[in-house]
Design goal:
The complex is a heterodimer of chains A (about 140) and B (about 675). With about 140 residues, chain A is an all-alpha fold. Chain A has a domain of about 70 residues. In chain A, helix 1 packs across helix 2. The radius of gyration of chain A is 34 Å and the shape is rod-shaped. By secondary structure, chain B is of the alpha/beta class. Chain B has 2 domains: about 400 residues, no CATH class; about 80 residues, no CATH class. Chain B has 25 helices and 12 strands. In chain B, strands 3-2-1-4-8-6-11 form a 7-stranded mixed sheet, sandwiched between helices. In chain B, strands 5-12-7 form a 3-stranded mixed sheet. In chain B, helix 13 packs across helix 16. The termini of chain B are far apart. Classes of the chains: A mainly alpha (about 140), B alpha/beta (about 675). The interface between A and B is large, with 40 and 52 residues.
């Protein structure tokens, strides 16, 4: 299964894929709870990640594995595997986008009238409170 | 009233009003010789509105032509100056490419050609490209991912991203709003494209420079030329856009200045004010005038203006921005149905408070564009009624037997055709020479002939669009169709049957009432009666190509294809994915570890959520038992949308293979 995995990632030479799979299994034997394919993925990423930005390693890896399989086998297999995924989009940089209000002329007129009436009412209330004893 | 509004009133409105008043006065004198009957009043009223409409567009084209001629030297100097400026380096612009069930080969060929064009302009570092997919077809989805991955593998093209939305909300405008909400803070500007758009790298750089030079510029719309169609219908439209378009764009830009419009694509937008002040509301009330805003671009432009930012049309960027037009009459009709519904909905915004006069004018013009066909139809009926009444009184066309009608007819013809002829004369079609000049003249004559043939068909078609828009409350906004399908009689009967029927009824009625009138109105009913053969003629790719081979209806972009278009076509041919079935493609996405990681990575990066076990488990079992072919499209989408299920399917496939190998 691991041989197939490496093949999918560009390591098409059967013998080298087997050698890579054996190395992964050796590491996996010390971490029985970890899925060996995750260790393989981590290894590929560690090899292809150098000098690449963001998710570039993901797209570089097949090319590197197919062109330089021996160099890949010379790199160390990471001894732990994180349960992460390939982030293929840039980091979020949120921007709020509230819905705007678009009202018709009648609604606008009603609002303006309501506001004017509220203003008058407030003035009256103000007048009443300023002369508490007035008639 | 602002200075620009006063200028527009004096330079645009007054001349149009004067010309309309003269023409209507002439008609009033002719009609009113024996007093005005009710049909006379209606005839005069419709004539006045129609004349004002065509006079407005003629005046716009004249002003634009004058502006083009006057500023050509200045534009050349500016272009030379632009080439000597330092390249853009800071990342400030996103290019957003919303797609929905498009052909992935064509879309990603355009994406790659634009990225290469930006690299050639030395501006790769300043732009990032986002393909924002709302695709609902499972096979197209997988093909999009494959095509995008091919681009990402290419050296130097890593600044391109693919995001598929799990929940489609408010279609294209919602797609772009989703982008703004997630990544809007990362960019100063975004260049919005349509699925069939393509822009030259130099033009995109120039757009950014103009935004940087004008901090109050909110949206800069670049006119786009129509390209890459072979049918006669589309070729005539492409030629018209390339020949008359620049003058009209220059005129529109002059009329509206900083209160211009946004057409939803091939435009650059300042992200912060767009996000903060242009979030589209739902309109109160019921469809067709209430509900979600269907045609978002005009409203976004109006909101941008309301926020105090300018919206301008870059009329002088006459090349480097392209899109595809509809290939045939029936596809144009489908587009009309969509636009008509959207534009009619804008009517209720014409008087909404706080919008600028320019924005109100755009809303009104957009809506009136679809009302104009109904007015033409009404005008023809009023002319017929007047003729019949005169015939009854023993004075057939009593009012039409003096010089005034001739002057009037000549005037209307000049107004209708003058703009086209002038724009053709002024068009900067290269290479300009005597032979080319003759070809342009012949092409213009051919385009005018085709327009005349199509006019009555589109009149009936647009009236039906109007009726459909007013009566349909479903608020469904169908996606644009971009294919060039082979013409078939069955489809033509379906799409042009009504037009033919109207033409036959009109012809029979006219001949029944008055032979003379029938002959007068022959240009109307002949086009309608022949709607089906005309449709066949216009849908012909062979005829379009034959005309092109003879140098007719050829646009500058065809005479000398820009590098970005040439490259896009080349890439589309080179990188076309193997046709393969959906089942085999799906199998590779669960069998191949890299492809599976790609798909799962894209799902998780986009934040897609896993579905409940009760939904996905039966589908998972069905795929294991009989393959993806056992599921419907909708069910396939569910499986593809769940990262966990896709991972499990992959693991299962690996174990199956391992067992197979061991056995």
């Amino acid at each position: 299964m691991l041989c197939r995995y490496f093949e999918s990632w560009g390591l098409v030479d059967g013998l080298l894929a087997r050698a890579a799979a054996e190395r992964v299994m050796r590491v996996a034997s010390t971490h029985p709870r970890v899925d060996p394919t995750r260790i393989a993925a981590r290894w590929i990423r560690a090899m292809a990640d150098e000098g690449s930005e963001g998710s570039d390693w993901f797209f570089r890896a097949p090319s590197l594995l197919s062109r330089f399989p021996a160099a890949f086998l010379e790199t160390d297999v990471p001894d732990a595997a994180q349960n992460d995924f390939v982030e293929l989009l840039p980091e979020l940089s949120p921007q709020s986008m509230p819905e705007q209000e678009v009202i018709g002329p009648i609604t606008h007129a009603v609002r303006v009238a309501a506001e004017a009436m509220e203003g008058v009412a407030a003035q009256r209330t103000g007048a009443d409170t300023s002369f508490p004893g007035g008639s | 009233m602002s200075r620009a509004t006063v200028r527009t009133v004096f330079v645009v409105v007054l001349p149009v009003v004067a010309a309309t008043a003269s023409a209507s006065g002439l008609l009033a004198v002719t009609l009113g010789r024996d007093g005005f009957s009710p049909p006379d009043v209606l005839l005069l009223g419709t004539f006045t509105i129609l004349f004002a409409w065509i006079a407005f567009w003629l005046w716009v084209a004249l002003m634009g032509a004058f502006r083009l001629a006057r500023t050509s030297a200045m534009r050349r100097a500016l272009a030379e100056h632009a080439s000597s400026r330092p390249p853009l380096e800071a990342l400030r612009t996103a290019i957003v490419f919303p797609i929905h069930n498009e052909d992935p080969d064509a879309v990603f060929a355009r994406v790659r050609a634009m990225l290469e064009s930006l690299a050639a302009a030395g501006a790769s570092a300043a732009f990032e490209m986002f393909v924002l997919s709302d695709t609902t077809d499972p096979d197209i989805w997988l093909r999009e991912e494959l095509a995008w991955a091919e681009i990402r593998k290419a050296p130097g093209l890593s600044r391109t991203y693919y995001r598929r939305r799990q929940h489609k909300f408010r279609k294209k405008s919602g797609n772009i709003a989703d982008f703004c909400r997630r990544w809007g803070g990362r960019y100063e500007y975004m260049i919005v494209l349509d699925a069939d758009s393509i822009m030259d790298g130099d033009v995109m750089v120039e757009m950014v420079r103009r935004m940087e030079a004008a901090p109050r510029l909110g949206i800069l719309q670049v006119p786009s030329m129509l390209i890459l169609r072979d049918t006669l219908f589309a070729r005539a439209e492409q030629f018209a856009a390339a020949t008359y378009g620049p003058a009209v764009f220059a005129g529109i830009a002059y009329c509206f200045g900083g209160s211009g419009n946004y057409w939803g694509h091939n435009a650059i937008v300042r992200v912060k004010p767009f996000a903060e002040r242009c979030g589209l509301p739902g309109l109160p009330g019921r469809p067709p005038f209430g509900g979600p805003i269907l045609s978002h671009d005009f409203v976004e432009a109006a909101l941008m203006r309301r926020a105090g930012y300018e919206v301008r049309l870059a009329w002088d960027l006459t090349s480097g921005s392209y899109e595809q037009g509809p290939a045939s009459l029936d596809i144009a009709r489908e587009r009309d149905v969509r636009w008509c519904r959207g534009n009619l909905q804008h009517l209720r915004l014409v008087f909404a408070p706080a919008f600028s006069a320019g924005s109100r004018a755009h809303f009104a013009i957009g809506a009136f564009f679809y009302g104009i066909s109904a007015l033409w139809g009404a005008y023809i009926l009023f002319v017929a009624a007047r003729y019949v009444m005169d015939a009854d009184s023993g004075l057939p066309m009593a009012g039409f037997d003096r010089y005034a009608p001739l002057v009037l007819s000549a005037g209307v013809a000049c107004v209708l055709l003058g703009g086209k002829v002038l724009a053709a004369l002024l068009s900067k079609l290269d290479p300009v020479g005597p032979a080319r000049g003759r070809k342009v003249a012949a092409s213009t004559a051919l385009e005018i002939l085709l327009s005349a043939l199509i006019a009555p068909i589109r009149m009936v078609s647009q009236v039906t669009c109007l009726v459909a828009a007013v009566s349909d409350t479903s608020m469904d906004w169908a996606a644009a169709r971009r294919d060039e399908r082979t013409w078939s009689l069955r489809r033509a009967l379906r799409t042009q049957g009504l037009e033919t029927f109207v033409g036959v009824v009109l012809a029979v009625a006219l001949f029944g009432v008055a032979r003379g009138l029938a002959l007068w109105l022959a240009p109307v009913w002949v086009g309608l009666v022949l709607a089906i053969p005309i449709d066949a003629l216009l849908s012909s790719r062979r005829l379009g190509r034959a005309l092109r081979a003879r140098g007719l209806l050829v646009t500058p972009a065809e005479a000398e294809p820009p590098e970005v278009i040439r490259r896009a076509l080349e890439l589309e041919r080179e990188h076309a994915l193997s046709p393969g079935s959906f089942a085999s493609r799906f199998e590779s996405f669960i069998g191949d570890s890299w492809l599976n990681a790609l798909h799962v990575g894209l799902l998780r990066s986009a934040g897609s959520r896993e579905l409940s076990a009760s939904v996905v488990e039966p589908l998972f079992e069905a795929v294991l038992a009989g393959g993806i072919g056992e599921l419907s499209k909708r069910e396939s989408m569910v499986v593809l949308s769940d990262a966990k299920v896709m991972e499990r399917l992959h693991r299962h496939r690996c174990i199956e293979r391992m067992r197979g190998s061991a056995a």
